[in-house]
Amino acid sequence: MDNTTTKINILEFLPDELGSVMEELGEKKFRATQVFGWLSKGISSFDEMNNVPKSLRDKLDNAYYIGQPEAAAVQRSTDGTVKCLFRFRDGAEIESVFMKYSYGNSICISSQVGCRMGCSFCASTMDGLERGLSGGEMLGQVLAMRALTGEDIGHVVVMGMGEPFDNYEGLLKFIKLINDRKGYDLGLRNITVSTCGILPGIRQFAEDAPQVNLAVSLHAPNQTLRERTMPVAKKYGYDELMQTCREYTETTGRRITFEYALIDGVNDSAECAEELASRLKGWLTHVNLIPLNEVSGRDYKTAAGANIKRFRDVLERHGVAVTVRRTLGSDIDAACGQLRRNRQDNQGTEINK
User: Fold this and answer.
1) What's the pLDDT tens digit per position in 125-140?
2) DSSP for 225-264, written as a single string
3) Which of 26, 84, 203, 350 is deepest in the core (most CB within 10 A)?
4) Would you name the residues annotated as active-site residues?
């Protein structure tokens, strides 16, 4: 009987969970640590586990599969950024982005196939939400990108397609999987999760993962402007969001990063900067100004360079920590807000792997 459709993704299991798998297969529990270690190295076949008995490898291959996604299309930027359209076993597709920084290599992974948050300047939400990704599927993106690029990845940002707190269970499982010392062993402070402002998620995250960096997509200095571009603001108001973020910093002692995409004629005025500064002055926060990455099919334009500088200067004058994000991969639509299930490279040709 063909069991390919009933196989289970073995990347979903933590070492203790794999211990139970070993017992079910009639094997010693210590084999779980060996298997978990091999999986975290990014192997693509059970036969690569050369210190595991062939009898066990055969058992695993009969019931499980290694859930690294297939690289369906790859695009490479002139700045070293690599964007990959990944395809999972069920045909679902997402995008992930590899980026090079002075402090090391980073990957931006997706947490959902599509997104239902509806932010009007973002490409990821244009096709709606198909489904959430499991923790193992999120880990699979990191392992597959490391194999694709041949480079170590020391930082992960969950800022790709989807709203992480709309897939909270999958997100937490991913963090546990990639942080486990028996496997990938990525430090919690090398992980950043970005939310559009799901308040119950922020509150729960403060308890569940206080060492993980939190970024909040703000993009406005007040409720009126935020509602204009972010439908989530109608459910979770601006003042309540600010209060929840204050409580987060008090609970965790950790700084929140507020992401602010500067959109020409919408939220880039000096008045907007002054209002934002008045709200954040004295906080344990950091503002990451993002020159809007323009999206085909959206009418928004990026703010002028002079307005970006003015906005930054206003915040600095009020003592608010601020940086302007270095844009990577914009020539291949790999920058913040541009990810969607795109099969075209920057010359308009599909790249199949």
Assistant:
1) 778 899 999 999 999 9
2) HHHHH-GGGGTS-HHHHHHHHHHHHHHH--PEEEEEEEBT
3) 84
4) 95, 336
